[in-house]
Amino acid sequence: MKEYEIKGLTCANCARALEEQIQSLPYGDGATLNYNSGKLRVHERIDLEKVRTILATDGAYIADDEQTQKKRNPLLYLVGASLFLFLMALVLEHLDIDGASIVIYMTAIALSGYKTFVKGLKNIIRFRFNMDTLMTIALIGAFGIGEWKEAAVVAILFGINEYLEGLGMERARRSLDMLLKQAPKEALLISNGNMRVVSIDSLQVGDVVVVRPGEKIPSDGVVIEGKSSVNEAAITGEAMPIEKELGMNVYGGSINNEGVLHVQITKQYKDSSLAKILHLVQEAQETKTPLELFIHRFAKYYTPFIMIVSLFVMLVPPLWFEASWHDSLYQGLAVLIVGCPCALILSSPIALLAGMTRNAKNGVLVKGGVHLETLGRVRTIAFDKTGTITKGKPHVTNVIAYSDENELLYIAASLESVSSHPLAQAIVQKAKQHHIAYKQPEQVETRTGSGMEGKVDGIWYRIGNERMFDHQLFTEQIQQDAEKLKCEGRTIVFVADEQRILGLFGIADEIREESKKIIQQLHRIGIRRTVMLTGDHEKTAKQVAKQVGVTHTFAKLLPEQKVEKIKELMKTDIVAMVGDGMNDAPALAHAHVGIAMGKGTDSAIETADVVLMQDHLEKLPEAIVIARRVNRTIRLNIAIALLLKATALLLTIPGWLTLWIAILSDMGATIFVSILSLFILWEKRTI
Length: 687
Known about the structure:
Protein name: Cd(2+)-exporting ATPase
Strand order of the largest sheet: 14-26-25-24-15-22-23
GO molecular function, one term: ATP binding
Radius of gyration: 34 Å
Helix content: 40-55%
Strand content: 15-25%
Organism: Anoxybacillus flavithermus
Keywords: ATP-binding, Cadmium, Cell membrane, Hydrolase, Ion transport, Membrane, Metal-binding, Nucleotide-binding, Phosphoprotein, Translocase, Transmembrane, Transmembrane helix, Transport
Oligomer: single chain
Structural class: alpha+beta
Enzyme class: translocase
């Protein structure tokens, strides 16, 4: 299948009609034309000339086609000319030059309404009922009863309406296109001591590229030379530059600010973070929410229903109530115009596209409109603890020395300096913070599951948990200190020489600085329950929950037990699960919405419905607020569209409905839903 960008699509119904025509061509099976994304996918062997011809019937064209790339939708110019002619005809009519005014009215109708008229005639022959069919019947009826002025108004306003409908969707697409343009195109590759420009698609893992100031980093990699600040906003949504130096990871698509960096590529571009973002965003455009599907099904039956109502208005009053045939026909034609489902069909796609684009710019990827819609309805959020609420990296919180603290740190760091265990590294880091100069031990013996012992400066020391030591070494004071740290949820590491305990360390997983603020924000925006699910022991879990403000805690959970808890929560609420590890993937998959940390494991990111590209939760409350704004906007759009149409239809009872009012009510609804949806893009502050 080949993909083409299509410009000039005027409405969702028109795109669907074009899609059906393309599907009827040889090799057209499986062709898709998506109005939201403006993308056409067709078989490589399809006759592209015939595809162009079909697209041209609606003023659409292939954007990258050399023969059509300079074309623009002429609808606005045609409508402008029609409006000028209409005003001229009004003047001639005022001067009682009726013959000339009728000719000019007809010319104005032809300029702005001929495409609709032709498409409508074809639809009538095929018994296909959509807005073009309604407009064509209305125009034919207006000609039949001699309402040339009203027919011209209908054609002109419908043309304006169609243009504005396309403009609103194009504005939402253009905002998304700006995001997609973040992708780099070329890289400066170092090969055999020489530098040459290559396409990013040709880069392989292990290649070394030079990134100069102002250039985009071509793909994910690691800095092997140089130092600079890098703007990662395109990936993570973070506004502040991040300092990068030797050994640090960088994202493809991020911008190098001032220094020259030599980056070794760790992922081909197609596997890079930016490529995944762009793929997910494009994929998300193609999905339809249950509400969108319902609206399209509703419009399919709604249009024929409106035609029946119109026929009733035309025939019943003159046949049963001796009303004027002219007036009844006129009212029936107005009902046809009111019945156009333009605004109703447009109520959802612009808002969804705007919401997904807005979140993507913030570094929050929503993998489809249905997930955005569900995210806006979430009332309970469950969090994994390690790596989500905490940093997933142990750090020393307490140092209790029964002699000299610096000596305790020196001995402990010397022993642990040869170990790669996370607890050992936490103690070494603590010594570094206190500027303690430690050294490697002369001898070391490891005790699996307990700790280690070794010789430092000719003396044997032991370090580890309680199992490493004889119980007679634990005085009442040491037991009290240890018990207090246990109650605080700390992991305890003891240090002793051959005669006594020298001191102990309390170690905990460090809580993220932003976690408490984020939990508070979530409660403030209406999240009823925040839940922490963890495999850690209960005291630690409760201590972390208390510090950050989580309302419910469940500890000592295996991955399958996390799933059971999620299922239990889902019985009473719409539930989101936030995690970053492989063990979180099952729970992410079962929740109504799975939310993964972007720097978590690939399995969590692949499973999740929403991906936070940052290594923290700060964008989560705003993402939920945007999703809720989208849901409110869609509901309001539907309500306004139906209310305006219902009000216009009620005007038929006293006979006040005119073609002018009918088309203005339809156009007003379309303009309103388009602008309201685009406000999602324009509004900057959400919480």
